[in-house]
Amino acid sequence: MKQLRVELKEKSYPIYIGSGLLQDKEILLKHIKSKQILVVTNTTIAPLYLDRVINSLSGFQVETVELPDGEQYKNLAYLDKIFDQLLQKRFSRNTTLIALGGGVIGDMGGFAAACYQRGIPFIQIPTTVLAQVDSSVGGKTGVNHPLGKNMIGAFYQPQCVIADMEVLDTLDDRQLIAGLAEVIKYGLIRDLQLFEWLEKNIALLLARDKEALAYVIERSCINKAKIVAEDEFESGIRAILNLGHTFGHAIETGMGYGKYLHGEAVAIGIGYAADLSRRMGLISVIDVERILALLKSATLPVIPPKEMKVTQFLGLMSVDKKNVDGEIRLILLEAIGKATLPTNVDQSLLEQTLKNYVG
């Protein structure tokens, strides 16, 4: 087992990475302060792993909420189902909420924990590559709105993150591949060595090589933890974690939540960001070709849905947390391994990038 740490003074917490951690009762117990526990999961994960978690919690009052699986259920209506259970079971403000699932469950469980009685402790147990390398770390929680993704939420840090690699054995190929988009992102924004390793070894990840997966999960968490420690509330450097996300969120919202997995939409967004970076004179054509080649080698999509037009993209991209005074601000690349802070972009160049793909 590897143990990392997100350094946030009194809010610091560990990230545990290893195999068989769901059966390690001691890890859970050291982060639980009361007898009341609510496990939030989904209908895909519950039959596979819920019993393992519950068996580690004998002697506690354990209740569960099983939500449907999918981004389309990440909204206020389904968030209410978590609050219903907390209130019906008369759970106190010392209750620990455990989020057992992928990014949707982690975001919703964390947001419920942030809101219930103005904040209760919660633990992240991510069950997808994307959640293990990115969304479970850093305290971003929230839900979607029909007009914008992740526009309702809170920064709220977990007590710990438990990334059990064994759960990836039951992860389907599409979900595994989607998670690799966030790994590639880390290589692009601040970790050239990781990017170069991915260029040589992406086939190992697609083949589910345990050592390769362990390497990229740990490396990604190290990158995320360092950035979050420097900028918890995304007032500066943390914004670079959004490379490709403004484009990607537009696709998720425009096409309807759930049509594209988050990582798939982000992969397309990374391609857009690379193209725009080239048009702005920041990176070369060769850099763009390398980025697109790696995305394609990972079997990630790079072409957006033909149904989306430039005007729709621009409208949806205008609803973004990085924007200021109505101006679209994007994370771009100065080089492979180095991202910019949010940058105001030339509207004509942005439109050229969008037209290059969608006409």
What does this structure look like?
This protein is of the alpha/beta class. The protein has 2 domains: 2-170, Rossmann fold; 173-358, Up-down Bundle (Dehydroquinate synthase-like, alpha domain). The protein has 13 helices and 13 strands. The protein has helices spanning 25-29, 46-55, 76-88, 103-115, 129-135, 173-190, 192-206, 210-230, 245-255, 262-279, 285-297, 310-317, 347-358, and strands at 2-6, 13-18, 36-42, 61-67, 96-101, 122-126, 140-145, 148-155, 161-164, 329-330, 333-335, 338-339, 343-344. It has a 4-stranded parallel β-sheet, with helices on both faces. Helix 5 (129-135) packs parallel to helix 8 and helix 6 (173-190) runs parallel beside helix 10. The longest helix has 21 residues, at 210-230. The relative contact order is 0.11. The mean pLDDT is 96.
Supply the key terms.
globular, about 350 residues, 13 helices, Rossmann fold, 13 strands, three-stranded mixed β-sheet, Dehydroquinate synthase-like, alpha domain, about 45% helix, 2 domains, single chain, alpha/beta, four-stranded parallel β-sheet
